[in-house]
Amino acid sequence: MLTPPGLTAARFQQALERLRRVVGNDWVFTSDADLDTYRDAYSPFWGEAQERRASAAVAPLDVDQVQAVVRIANEFKLPIYPISTGKNLGYGGSAPNLSGSVIVDLKRMNRILEVDATRGFALVEPGVSYFDLYNHLQQRKIKLWIDCPEPGWGSVMGNALDRGVGYTGQAYRDHFGAHCGMEVVLPSGELMRTGMGALPGAKTWQDYRYGFGPYVDGLFSQGNFGIVTKMGIHLMPEPESMVAGVVEAAQYHDIEPLVAVLNRLENSGLCDGMPQISSPALGGLGDPPNPEITRVIGTPGGPKPADLARIAQGKPFWHVRVLSYGPKEVAQAKWAYAKREFRKAVPDCRIVEEVAYDIPLTPEKEEALSPYRLELDRKVNFGIPNLGIFAMGARSPAFPKPSDGHMWFSAVVPRSGAGVMEAQNLFCRAIAEAGVYIGFNAPIPLGYSPHLFLMIFPVFLSKSDPVMNRKGRELLMHLIDLGAKSGYGEYRAAPALQDFIMDRYSFNKHAYRTFCEQLKDAVDPNGILAAGRYGIWPKQLRKARRS
Ligand SMILES: Cc1cc2nc3c(=O)[nH]c(=O)nc-3n(C[C@H](O)[C@H](O)[C@H](O)COP(=O)(O)OP(=O)(O)OC[C@H]3O[C@@H](n4cnc5c(N)ncnc54)[C@H](O)[C@@H]3O)c2cc1C
Does residue 149 have its Cβ closer than 6 Å to ligand 1? Predict the structure, then answer.
């Protein structure tokens, strides 16, 4: 059992005793077996000294108990780290940034407090999972959709607070962007409501997110300024249909007109589903690693036409999946318009697949949906939570030695064809030089928002091979550094990389981080809450962490 930094073992025991008095003996966890469940199963330091481990966990039942836990933490200067469902695999799991922290596990607070079918929102507690909210809506026949990430076992709140992403309508895929109103236990133990919630008895807490005065909700996303105990989330009206198709383009440089059309469609509201870009020629997850493809795309100055033709082996370079929701005649009209525009921009493009679904789906149609990956009929495109994505990285002929986990590389790149090619060229060159398989031969853009692409790919990890993990970490740090020097930053990262990344958000002598840390010192003078999350350290620990 670890002892939290700054506390003696005896003082720690006293703190635990006080926590037990608040939540009951059964809800303070200290055994190795219990604490194993709070390890980051995808830790890039698995089994090494640098692995981030909790010293204990406490599971409060309600807001009063959360406030009491925070007050005890202040009294003992006990570092605490809140999680909602703690399923943040690839971005840190349920482990804290600071080893020895006590996890404040909010899973027991799992009530759906309100759903308004007319105004389209839910008000939830931290432990409400996507499955919970989905089942709640289904059982009551409420015609609203959730928007879930690939794994449906995570929480609506934790995912939004880490700025997670989903796959249905445009206004709902940015989960933090779709939240509306919070209740927060501040590091002092005080309770605050944001937005209209600051008005006692407000009638529009989940309708108008800004309230009056500065908008502070952002501090609680990827931040360490409070424990969120309630959150509103906007929900999409169930559409009458989903109509989608795949546009195929043969040439690598076709990505420029393809993205230009896609952007115009999305920004005009004429394609409101999650577009997906993949590349049969470059391959994707599950395809055999081909270092030659990575090397060609990373050719200094850009890939040469003859090399591109050779690696393509007759396969097309791009598939763009375009999805629209709405009344059938409207969704079909949107798709018809999209086809016309793609054909104008890339005359030799082909439409290789078209689907139309009436919603609600029949049980047979729902059963036949694809659990994951780049199909038009993925469950998440219909707001249906599932865990099919965990087939990713499973044993297959192309992948005979499955990994034990992965870390995501998640750079934000400009949403243009030129932006995609420039980023692919830069990152492929570095990946080819490092000789580490990244799960794709070339990173492919993910367009969850109409204004940017995320270049997301996994770097695989092992529970028994520290050398593989070290190489993976080194590659990621190299890519992050290289990206930063070329103007690309990450949207989200695992704790193992957060300091490294925050160090690169350094405009004007780190003015942004300095401002965040001034706020941290003001609202959390004892530095108890989620120290180090996203590179924000309290003053007591700053020097040690940065030197
Ligand atoms: C194969 C695979 C695919 C994935 N696909 C996606 C995807 O499509 N989209 C996506 O977004 N993610 C994806 N993920 C990442 C991750 O699984 C999800 O984002 C997951 O929902 C996050 O876990 P959670 O909801 O339990 O959040 P938690 O782990 O509970 O929370 C995340 C972090 O937020 C903070 N936090 C949580 N609750 C609170 C609170 N109440 N107050 C203050 N701070 C809090 C904590 O720092 C916590 O560590 C994927 C992961 C894997 C392995």
Answer: yes
